[in-house]
Amino acid sequence: PFVKSLQWAHEQEWRLFREHEDNYLYIPCISEIYLGINFDFDNFQRISEAIKKNGRDIKVFWTHPKPNTYGFNRVRIYLSE
Question: CB of 2 within 8 A of CB of 37?
Fold first, then answer.
């Protein structure tokens, strides 16, 4: 999960991994978060709360592979208030 194929290098994405108990996420440059196919949704509540505490409009997407391609589909997840 920490290694990305060179085919996607043009995206210049950052991968953020954090294990912390404060549930606070403030990084002004983040505008979208993509949850990969191996994301453990048991952690989603914690992430959702951290995003809400941030006070910014951060879009969250769940991604899953497109059949027979190297691409992916994304589905927007709307956070409840």
Answer: no
**AA identity, residue 74:** R
Helix runs in the chain, H state only: 44-54
17 φ, ψ (degrees, to nearest 5): -125, 130
Pick the more confident residue, 81 or 70.
70
Contacts 24+ apart (CB under 8 A), 19-27: 23/49, 23/50, 23/53, 24/50, 24/53, 24/54, 25/50, 25/51, 25/53, 25/54, 26/54
**Residues 78, 63: Cα–Cα separation, whole Å:** 14
Distance of CA 38 to the CA centre of its chain: 11
d(CA 50, CA 26) in angstroms, rounded, equals: 8
| pTM (2 d.p.) | 0.64
